[in-house]
Write a structure and sequence with these properties.
heterodimer, A: mainly beta, Jelly Rolls, 3 domains, seven-stranded antiparallel sheet, 37 strands, B: mainly beta, Porin, 20-stranded antiparallel sheet
Chain lengths: 524, 476
Amino acid sequence: MLKLHFLQFLYIILAAVIIQGCVTVPSDVVMPQWDTNLNVPFATKSYTLADIIKSQNYISISAAQDSVFIINSDTYSQTVSVGNFIQVKIGLPISNIQIPTINTELPPVLLPFPEGAQIDSATFVSGTIQITGTTPPTNTAAATLSIRIPGVFNPNGTAMALSVTVQPNSTNSATYTFAPGSRYVQPSAQYSTGFELIAKASGPSNGLVTFSATASDFVFSSVTGYLPTKSLGTQNNNFSLNLGDASKYRGKVTLKTGTLTLSGKYNSPSLKPFIVQVKNLQVQGVRNNGGGTMNLSYNIPLTTFTFDSTGTLNPPPYTESNSNITSFITFLPDAINISAEYIMNPDNSLAYRTANSSDMVSFTTSFSTKSLLAIQQTSFVDTLKLDISQDARDQIVKGQGVTAIADIQNAIALNSWVKVTLTDANYKPLFVVTRDTIAHADSISFTGAAVDNNGNVTTPALSNTIISLDSTQIRLLAQSAHYAFVSVTVSTSGANNAPVLVRAKDWIKLNVYGSVNYRIKGNN
Amino acid sequence: MKKIIITIAFILSVSYCTFAQYGSVGIVDAKSMSLGKTYNANTDGIYSIGINPSNMMFSPSSHFEFTTVLPLPDLSVKVGTNFMNFNDFNYFFGGDGTKDANGKANARLLTDADKQRLFGLFSNSGNVFMNASFTTFAAMYKANSTVGAFGFTMSDFIGGSFTVPKALVDLGLNGNNPNQVYSFNDVDGQGWWIREYSLSYARELPEIPQTIFDKIAVGLSIKMVQGFAYFGVDHVNANLTTGSGNSLGLKSEWMIKSAFSSDFGKIYDFDSLNTSKSKVGPFLTPAGTGLGIDFGVSAAYDEVWRFSLAITDIGKINWNQNTAEYSGNSSLTITDLTDSTQRQSLSDSLKGKGHATSGFTTDLPTALRLGVSYNLTQYVPGSVLLALDYNQGFNNVPGNSKIGRWSLGIDWAPMGWLNLRTGFSVGGVDGFGWALGLGLDAGTVEFLFATSDMNQVVMGNSGKMFTVSLGSRWKF
């Protein structure tokens, strides 16, 4: 047994010596670190302008014009009621009509309509006919004067009748008021315009009544006939535009084409409405905060337009060839002001036409242009908040350097330069990201495509840019960067700033690749 | 659950194991390990089982021996790599010599020279392996030359290896160079945990009339094999190229097969209906079963010579429980890392998809074993046995190699209770190895201790692998 124990002991000693005696191992096993260079494709993107210019105010794409952008304004309208037109108020009196008191109707006496109007038919809202009777001292008793006017009906359909009793050597008056709905229809046997007064008098024998009459203050709900020329007044409306960032291009953009259309409509159930005239039309662009104004005008001054006999107005549109429309649009106003005076029956035509109190004159204008334009070098800046998670920052800080090569094919006729400056949380600049190591500039550029004389893209432009960040910049990016100042400058690429045609299908391809020097650590 | 898969796969892949006698290159018992894994014509008793069962007939008649976990378990372990020694390991993974505020070593920041040195270590690819074998119980009884000998063993083998593709190391250290093709076709890995129950019988053949040999014996072992876990790379055809604009072209076509005992619980991520928990014990429900046969013949000549011929582990394991395939087949080009669709495609391509299968088979480590030994006792004090082996595997499953292996072993017993053993092995997957071991015979019980890679031990920190084998057997 002793031998057995000895052998066991010897065995254990040998095992310990052989297993542990010859090898040393680290007390802490820790993964090494190293920097490795990864060549990776950062991004391969292709964008069309339709991708970049999302649906915005006033911008659409014309399939019919090979995807040219169309900028359409809203439709700006004025509407004017003709209520002021279908009223004639100033009466033309008749007087000294003598009627013996023989109780017999005398031949009709014509009472003119106010203001010389000629009415074939009308429905009244209001109006009056006043009759004044006078008797001489020779009358021995009171006399009664009765008058009827053929064609005038009360709202209930009864014929109009009016009478006044006058004491001897006295004067007395009576007024007939046209209740709403009262109507007048010129009798078919009447050949003169105006009210035909058929009067008779009764009273003492050999008596006499002298009367006068005035028709005034007529307001019609509808009328057919002749109404004298009348201005409805000057209408002024202001329309705000929502330009958004487009206002940054003020003074920098030149449009080659543009159209502003005008249209008018006399809205009436009548088939033969009155003629309307738009006078002293003024379309004015207004910039806020005293930024100035610009009037839209034809090259040959023209501010008055007359509706046709069907109640329609279609004057020639403002175009780049007959007006300053392109300058007007590129003025990029904050609001458009439209003012005009509206004249009814401007030629004072005696032709009978019809008007209703519900009639409205509407005047509409809108403008459009397409993306055939030139942009002078224009810059605008923005501040972006960097939304980088802490996990992402922890990974970024392991970067030791990055070099990005951007191969750009640009089939958009737009040169652009982009400068990005990272800042800390207090907007203090840290460093410029877009430092082009080829051009030794602090911005990267995208050369615009070549264009022909018509502004059509002929050849995409090729650009190449290399951007490098060192470990210090990467550390700043990971640890301190919170905002980015982005400055973008653009200009169209036409020779001598000639307009270029910008289409929604124009594209830009970016192939960004490069290398990342990354520190591999044990916890990667 | 994926972590479980990865953990098990890793354990299997880095364990290149051998218990008892296993395959043409696997680790074996402590006695054979001490002879440079020379065992064909010089083993006897329980150590014959798995090598050449006919060798049981070279034990004395009416001899009984067995081994179990006491007083020392029969255990062999081999861990190492083919590319990195302890000096390298200490240099790269031992920190830079400074400590952080918590007293932990700071990681070494590799210089370009360091990276070159590390990459150079993988010039022949990087293979990591670990083998372990354990015999729970083995017993042998030899009656006499006519009745024969009987043996029984119950042994576990856990083994595997994983080959890190050189291109992957190149990528990790140096990044990807444009226009260079990085091929990952050399990635490989295989591992398993199997248990063998072996019944052996041997006897002499006096019926064969001959006068040349002192005796001729034949032996046969029939093995019931249970597989508890398997993980193997079926094939990999993958490469990465960096093209124009640094576009990354990835071709990936690969398949991994696996099988795990249901007692491990839910293993596969696609097996959503499986909610079972792990219940690992000494006797697991097998994921695969198989039968194997060892056959051997040996002969003694002129009392000092012994010749041995055997074919072992003829058979297969049919894995048919809890089996799965993970595979990927894609060819894609990454041109935009900001494109989530491309990133997802890349992720899907690398991860592949898994699905259950009806099963698959793997070969046992079939090997041809030839050996000759010569007893030099008449020339040297004490007893000396000189043995020469050639082992040729017929496949590359764990423990086996198609690369033939030669070995030479010398067993010297200067005193009756002490055996000094050494040996050399060349070929196979490990190349050259110098073995050294010790046997201490206390009569009824024998203690064994060895390493088959003494050359690695004496190299100290320049060694790349570590092998130890120990055991004991009771003899009556």
